[in-house]
Amino acid sequence: MYLFFPFHCFGLETFVIDPGHPSENGVGARSPRGFREVDLNWQVACHMKSLLALEKQFRIIMTRDSFDETVTNRHRAEIANAASASLMLRIHCDSGHGHGVTLYYPALPGQLGNDRGPSPEVCSASAVLASLVQNHLSQALGASYRVNRVKTDRQTAIGSRQGALTGSIFSHVPVVTIELGYLDNPLDESFLTATPTQNLLSEALAGAIRHCFGKLTENRPGNH
Q: Which of 5, 44, 52, 165 reaches 20 to 30 Å from 27, CA-CA?
């Protein structure tokens, strides 16, 4: 039984795609061959948007309008909040000698200055959505790319200090962060930078969103 979340608008599922960086934290990671995280995030986000825009039940919003636009993590969350998004998916790449794609969600509220969040309700919704996306990605990608188990924001460097990632703390809607891969891993770098496999990942993510919200719609009151 999936939970029902009241984060939707005018009969449409509003989905916010947040291509990570540039932000107050710069342009992100860079691979040994010079591929930049900020560019890969943008490419995957744009491909996802083009695929999901074909679905009449989705309203798609991007948190920035160009690949080089700087938007703070707080403002990215505020964009999703203002849209009453069903989900904000934060797209990033990692480094640190790991392998494969990993999804993170806020398990508990964090603290940044005087700001505390997200709420327990948003944490619960985010956990379910992260699991649904991870399950679909595992099936869609199969043996072509590793899909790691879902982790919490507190298992990241920033989350371990703040209790949650900055983008999560300011979010009033379900929020999931996806690290597409590890740019210091040659296997991940090749997968993420080659057009056919990058497209495969983007298409799997778009499919995961369709699957997620199809399941949630099935379990809304009045749909049984």
A: 52
Q: How far apart are CA 207 and CA 73, in angstroms?
A: 26
Under a CB-based contact definition with an 8 Å cutoff, are residues 19 and 93 in contact? no
Count of CB atoms situated within 10 Å of the CB of 95: 17
> Other C-beta atoms within 10 Å of 119: how many?
13
CB distance 163 to 154 below 8 Å: yes
pLDDT digits (tens, 9 = 90+) for 34-80: 999 999 999 999 999 999 999 888 999 999 999 899 999 999 999 99
Looking only at the bridges linking them, the beta strands covering 102-105 and 151-152 are parallel
According to the CATH classification, is domain 13-218 in 2.30.38.10? no
Residues belonging to the chain: 224
First vs last C-alpha separation in the chain: 12
Question: Which tokens sit at 127?
Answer: 């956990």
